[in-house]
Amino acid sequence: MNEGASRSTCAVVKATAMLGAPAHARSHSLPPEVTSAGRFPPRGCAGPRFWALFPQTGIDSEAMTCLVRTEPLPGTPPLLIPGDPYSVCVLLRGYAEPEGDRGAVRADGSVTLIVPTPGPGGRDPAASGPGSPRGAEARAALERAAAGPVLVDTAGPWSRGALLEALSGQGLAPGDVGLVVATHGHSDHVGNLGLFPDACLLVSRDLCLPGGTYLPHGLAEGRPLRLGPGLEVWATPGHGGAGDVSVAVAGTALGTVLVAGDVFEREGDGDGWRELSEDPAAQERSRRRVLAAADVVVPGHGGPFRVVRGDGPGDDRGAGANPPET
């Protein structure tokens, strides 16, 4: 929700964050591997891997949105989507509800946990590339941080107890979280950053403090932050300004999951998001790109929903391949 504007791209505090790329599943029903209770599956019990049905380039995201419909993903938090090499768990479902008769809204943001699935593949060679020594330092720090649990957003300070309880339900304490990604700087999404003093943080520049050490990340140049196979952070500006990001996770049992912050307030949010946006034109472009790439979207203030493409059975393929342009 709108409580301030991000002034530029994201900065890295001690490190950075990541996710996304090709993959997907094609079923209208929830696979048995996806559960709405319990902890992550034991090591080695990852969901199936899926591969992109569309090429990496050449997708017209604006045209794709004409063929897209959405449907709610059944289940309640904790909603687990297993995967390989990462599993996704929606810990807390965001909401935005009218309060009183003066147009006030009571709101809180979604919180999503991403856990790597151990395997023999090891470090992804695409995670590192040419760049400055400081850029290499950021990538190395990110790789170390993403070797453990990754948290996307932390909800508002009023949800501190609920967040701690949700983490405990997955067998985790705040100190176990290696990386926290803030999709944007509004208090209903970053209100509990203080619970994770030892984690690496990916935050928008409007949250940076003077005197801190911030490492370059490349989003300003239009490159996703990539840690490993199917794990990236994409620039998706609009709602909070130029610094908003989304986290993409490929290879889950439902395909590519896009944790989108407030790019989408909720499924079926119509045009209501526009009045909450710092840059509606940029957000419109981000929304189209998300719909062109995701199989499941976790919005900022509602339950996750599936993206279904095509007009009939057998033609509901997902694009799931292209990170958004910037």
TrEMBL record:
Domain Metallo-beta-lactamase: 7-301
Catalytic reactions on record: a ribonucleotidyl-ribonucleotide-RNA + H2O = a 3'-end ribonucleotide-RNA + a 5'-end 5'-phospho-ribonucleoside-RNA + H(+)
Location of the region described as Disordered in the Swiss-Prot/TrEMBL record: 114-138, 268-287, 302-326
Superkingdom of source: Eukaryota
A Pfam family matched in the record: Lactamase_B
Main subcellular location: cytoplasm
Family: Belongs to the metallo-beta-lactamase superfamily. Glyoxalase II family.
UniProt-recorded name of the protein: Metallo-beta-lactamase domain-containing protein 1
Gene transcribed to yield this protein: MBLAC1
